Amino acid sequence: MTVFSKIFFLLCACSQLLYSQSKEVRFLSGTDAEHTKEWDFWVNSGRKSGNWNKIQVPSHWEQQGFGSYNYGRDYVTYSRNFKFHDETGLYKHKFTIPNSWKGKDINIVFEGSMTDTEVKINGQVAGPVHQGAFYEFKYDISDKLNFGKENVLEVKVSKMSADKSVNNAERLADYWILGGIFRPVYLEANPKEHISRTAIDAKADGTFHSNIYLNEINSANNLKVEIFDVKNNLVGESQIQIQKGDTLKQIQFSVKNPKLWTAETPNLYKAKFSLNKNRKNIFHTEEKFGFRTIEIRKGDGIFINGTKVKMKGINRHVWCPETGRAVTENIDLMDVLLIKEMNMNAVRCSHYPPNKSFLKICDSLGLYVLDELAGWQKKYSTEVGKKLVKEMVVRDANHPSIIFWSNGNEGGHNFDLDSEFAKYDLSNRPVIHAHHKPGNTFNGIDCNHYEDYYSTQKILEGENIYMPTEFLHAQDDGGGGTSLADYWELHWNSKKGAGGFLWAFVDEGLVRTDFNNQIDVNAINAPDGVLGPHREKEGSFYAIREIYSPIKIDLKSLPNDFNGIIPVENRYHFTNLKDCHFEWKLVNFKTPFSSESGFDIVKTGKMQSPDIQPTGKGNINLNLPSDWKESEGLLLTATDAFGKEIYTWTWKIKSNNEISRQLSNLLIKTNPVSIVENDSLFILKSDEKEFAIGKKDGLLKSVIIDKKGKKMSFKNGPVFVNGTMELSSIKSFAEGQNQLIEVKYKNGNKIIWKLNPNGILELNYEYSLNGNYPFSGVSFDEPENYIISAKWLGKGPYHVWKNRLQGQTYNVWQNLKNLTRTGQSPWVYPEFKGYFDDVSWLQLDTSEGKITVGTKEEKMFVRLFNFYGIYGAEGYPKLPTGNISFLDAIPPLGTVLAFNINDKTESLGPESETNHLNGTFKRTLYFYFGLPDLGDENKQFTMPKENILTD
User: Fold this and answer.
1) Which residue range or ranges hold the Glycosyl hydrolases family 2 sugar binding domain (predicted)?
2) How many Cβ atoms are within 10 Å of 864's Cβ, its own excluded?
């Protein structure tokens, strides 16, 4: 090629680039809540009212120090005419645009403004006042602009709408209602001839169908569509001729063997739409999409690409504590990752359309989305609703992640709008009604909210698909993962069970700029999440993760004949387990007096992944080494095809009887023991320690841990948490080198205290029960304000309930004392207080010294101090006596909605029933008070046989 030909080629290429155009975007505001721009602002009432100030856009003006705060339910306690909420903000912003934009179609776009929004450009009204807070709207302002000169944008935003139905649908709701331009504002410029929008329907068989909306077609005579895969390979194309004045063209063709989009396989393609004039491209635009087919087979289920799927979903508010509903792409990404970390596959956008970036991330990472028209419990009018349906669907229709449209929530359904969605959605997705009353089935799907377990059973026996769009309300620590296992098994095993959506994702706590930036959850109204406001993980988060694991392993403990083979069920819909990966670890746990928590890894190994089809069952063979029983614990980690951890299961190899011997093996110092008595006490004594036992009740009255007489305040136990403790007899006696006190009660309960020469105080107790009980076991007293931290070998690190044992793994955990009340400030997790599962030993670090407690028998729960699961007029459920308990049974936890929380928890399913206890229960506890002389901490000590705790 000559120099001249090269120059000619470059000139032609440059000419082509200059001639081809696409939409140009120029932001007037910032791009998100972190990247804002300063505008002028004035508000008519509340803080900083009556004067012009500066405000960051996008934002809510309350979070910028203006106006007043309103929770949606304020109308109940304030004014029915809404005057309390009537705030209006005025915005001003100056901007310039280039002369090169002359002759183009220029729109100003608002992605979201709360609520009524009037826009002026250079003093001219841009168009009708927009009503509706969560919807993208735009005005053509081409004829109102000064090119190359300064332009003035004025925006008037009224917090409450002049339309009563908009207030009913959006503002009088159970969530924070804020004001202002909370999503970006920008200009978009297109050449006169352009593609204004496209609508795509791409089916699983490879059929691609698109409606292409054209603007002012004059010279263009060809329309071309090209499909590219993720590697930018051209996989399909088609073109048609167009004529002057065309406004809509349709193209349909097929792509061979497309990779299909599902939440498990989020395969995306790109469609490039080009307007051409005599083979020259004059305009182009692009859209990402996925090939997938959605079917509702009435009386059967929801099918994606011909496969029945069940929703493991959650309700999500768009939320950031500092900025409210003005968020960022990073927040959207974080939320999708957290939802997927819980092994969920679906999200409901409650109760309004989300940010565009959230939907893009759901497309690319894989979540089924229920996109919802607002309407909390009241509906839009038909006139307003039609406009808002169009704005929502036009913006969102090409997202493959959206598989449902929801026409409002809990009675907020305007039936006249049901047919509006299909006008703008070429793929004609199903429309549902998210409701809270029976009998509102729509399109063959019943979405009734907050049914209990047994009414759910009845619904699943009916004629309709059942997919509750809200269930197991997670206020405080209730709901969420609590009882979820029972509900999930119902849906998984039922033909018409389609899964559902938990309420809700986060505690909607707002940083109050009028209260020194404290976080406010509006009392009991907004702490409904399985995560805190800053995405702090609560116990339900981890329970959900195990319950919804697509790899289901039910093995609770290792059987005596365990040979490394574990039964497994594949609960994926589209993924074979051979595409997942498995790794095991053999570990030894840290000892009670070690300065560390956790475990030491002994050996690791990987095994061949089993070939188990979706919904199939089979086995995993760990191929453990022959000496695996010499280790103390076994861990199994599963990762998915993308390298993300699905779950880690843990099992204890050594029994508690073997583990308890470790404590005595660490104690190298022994002293002879004796017993003295006075009128009221038996006193068990060694050289350094003294334990006083009351003669009238057999309870521990005091503890002295050294020769100086230093006391500890642990006492008043063991009190049986059920029944009375009327003394029948008490006596002391010697047994070898040990001193014992035997206590019997009139109801047949019995305790024996034994002091060993190595300083261990042993407690053996037994009790009999026959009936239904919230808990069982024994309690002691310990001043809570003396506690510094806790360390334990057992399940953790979060507390549990009878119906939420899932999600906690076996390890040595350590937790500094906190005062966290789930769902309330401070959001410090895991909570220090609560019931803890499968504890082998516990060590409390107190201001008076250490208290170490071990057990010989299996499956002991430990209760630490006073806490409640749900806070209403009073705390629930009730607690055992004392404040430190060693228990054989603990209570279930209900939810705050639909049930009388004092007596209806059992309606949530079998796991939520009270404990049915019948028989005699025995347990041995080993107490060591203070810090022993360990010598070389790393040395393995062998004690004389008489000093080892006997079986």
Assistant:
1) 52-191
2) 24
Q: Which of 883, 886, 767, 876 is nearest to 838 (CA)?
A: 886
How confident is the model over 128-187, as pLDDT tens digits?
999 999 999 999 999 999 998 999 999 999 999 999 999 999 998 999 999 999 999 999
| Rounded average pLDDT over 391-401 | 98
Which of these, 909, 834, 908, lies nearest to 875 by C-alpha position? 834
Locate 770 and state its tokens.
């026959």
Q: Quickly tell me which residue has 């095994």 as its tokens.
A: 607
Judgement on whether residues 202 and 230 belong to the same structural domain of the protein: yes
Residue with token string 């768009």: 318
Does one domain contain both 246 and 128?
no
**Per-residue DSSP letters for 323-345?**
TBT---HHHHHHHHHHHHHTT--
- Give dist(CA 315, CA 508) in Å, integer: 12
DSSP per-residue letters across 576-608? -GGGSEEEEEEEEEPPTTSS--SEEEEEEEE-P
- Does residue 120 surpass a pLDDT of 60? yes
For residues 401 and 368, give the distance between their C-alpha atoms in angstroms, rounded to a whole number.
5
Full residue range of the structural domain in which residue 50 is found? 24-190
Count of C-beta atoms within a 10 Å radius of residue 731? 10
Instruction: Tell me the pLDDT tens digit for each residue of 699-751.
Output: 999 999 988 889 999 999 999 999 889 999 999 999 999 999 999 999 999 99
Half-sphere exposure of 367 (CA within 13 A, CB side): 30
Average pLDDT over residues 198-206: 98
Residue at a domain's end among 488, 512, 547: 547
Window from 287-296, 565-574, 586-595 with minimum mean pLDDT: 586-595
Identify the bridge partners of residue 794 per DSSP, sorted by sequence position: 811
pLDDT band at 790 (very low <50, low <70, confident <90, very high): very high
- In percent, the amount of the chain with pLDDT more than 90 equals 86
Closest CA to 888 of 928, 859, 857, 919: 859
Q: Which secondary-structure segment (H or E) carries 923? A: strand 915-929
Token pair belonging to 734: 């010697």
Q: How far apart are CA 927 and CA 853, in angstroms?
A: 5
Rounded CA-CA distance 112/527 in Å is 25
Closest by CA to 815, choosing from 832, 828, 835, is 832
- Asked, for residue 885, whether it belongs to a domain, the answer is yes
Contact 799, 841 (CB under 8 A): no
Please indicate, yes or no, whether residues 244 and 215 belong to a single structural domain of this protein. Answer: yes
Query: Residue 599 is part of a domain; what is its CATH number?
Result: 2.60.40.10
Please check whether residues 858 and 905 belong to one and the same domain. yes
Question: Distance between CA atoms of 426 and 405, rounded to whole angstroms?
Answer: 13
How much is the mean pLDDT over the chain?
A: 92
Report whether 251 contacts 231 (CB < 8 A): no
Asked whether residue 710 falls in the same domain as residue 645, the answer is no
Q: In the structure, what pLDDT confidence band is assigned to residue 244 with cuts at 50, 70 and 90?
A: very high
Contact 513, 48 (CB under 8 A): no
Q: Compute the distance between CA of residue 183 and CA of residue 157 in angstroms, rounded to an integer.
A: 13
pLDDT of residue 942: 33
* Per-residue pLDDT at 118 exceeds 50: yes
> Same domain, yes or no, for 429 and 350?
yes
Task: Compute the radius of gyration of the chain from its Cα atoms.
Answer: 33
Structure tokens given for 55: 């405000």
Q: How many independent structural domains does the chain possess?
A: 5
List of long-range contacts for 905-910, beta carbons under 8 Å, 24+ apart: 905/803, 905/877, 907/452, 907/453, 907/454, 908/452, 908/453, 908/472, 908/482, 908/483, 908/486, 908/803, 909/452, 909/453, 909/454, 909/483, 909/486, 909/487, 909/490, 909/803, 910/453, 910/486
The CATH number for 96's domain is 2.60.120.260
For residues 153 and 145, give the distance between their C-alpha atoms in angstroms, rounded to a whole number: 10
Angle CA(261)–CA(264)–CA(265) in degrees, nearest 5? Answer: 40
